[in-house]
Amino acid sequence: MRLSTVILPIYRWAEGRRVWEGAEELGFHAAYTYDHLSWRSFRDGPWFGAIPTLTAAAAVTRRMRLGTLVTSPNFRHPVTLAKELISLDDISGGRVTLGIGAGGTGFDATALGQEPWTPRERADRLAEFVPLLDRLLTEDTVSYEGDFYSAHEARNIPGCAQRPRLPFAVAATGPRGLRLAARYGQAWVTTGDPTLYEEGTPEQSVQALRGQMEKLGAACEALGRDVSGLDKILLTGFTPDRGRPLESLDAFVDFAGRHQELGFTEIVLHWPIPDSDFAADEKVFEQIATGAPAQLA
Which of 1, 141, 169, 191 could form a disulfide linkage to 238, CB 3.0–4.6 angstroms apart? Predict the structure, then answer.
């Protein structure tokens, strides 16, 4: 069981640098950030770009992996994204993981002036986005003409520092997304069942996650792939447990242990943000970061 954190891109770098350096000092396996143009209650406050933030973080860290949770087609194009990812992977010395998903109906969905896509339209785009991005990150030159995206002799030399490319962590719960995770993913990401967040119980959440795991296994089996070859990542903060796992080290170890039994290999905690949904006692957070991995080994 690996323990990671997600640091929202809300800090001017003079402060943000200390946060990212602090995450590495605490021993986190990875530190991710959200790839949005703005997000929910943070919309009217500071919010910086994911790729520049990760590039700066790569320059001040040495061991910790870095990545997005998650990038989506809402405002990204595979050709330009591939160039940025290859550059970031090189600067970081091959420490980048791309979390990728279909996106939602938040501010990103309309920031470029378009109407929000339906769930089916988002799934259609992701189904084209991921395979094209896979090619762009593994082939020197790519030409492609699809329903949503095109590439004309797009060149990406020398490619990723990681070979054959940087890993994809595909966020998915539906059948089409799970098939993409099974085919292209090195990891799978979930936040649980969103319908349970308001009135569900932790027990119902565990049962729902067990069902998602079973569907992922079936998607892998259909492709002749062993599901054990995929990492399984739980991004916390969106299950009925809410902030309770961060109330104490024991509470977190209990929470993480129950999800480890389901097959999760990595749990991601939000870096504490006062006066927000991600508020937490910083000392307890540090105790969890430094003490929990040994208890979950």
Answer: 191
Peptide bond just before 52 cis, omega within 30 deg: no
Q: What is the pLDDT of residue 161?
A: 98
72-100: pLDDT as tens digits: 999 999 999 999 999 999 999 999 999 99
3-state SS, one letter per residue, for 30-62 = EEEECCCCCCHHHCCCCCCCHHHHHHHHHHHCC
Contact (CB, 8 A) for 3 and 289: yes
Query: 164: burial class by Cβ within 10 Å (0-12, 13-18, 19+)?
Result: exposed
What is the spatial distance between Cα 49 and Cα 119, in angstroms, rounded to a whole number? 25
Place of tokens 């605490």: 26
Q: What is the pLDDT of residue 275?
A: 94
Structure confidence by residue, pLDDT tens digits, 270-283: 999 999 999 999 99
Within 13 Å of residue 293, how many CA atoms lie on the same side as its CB? 13
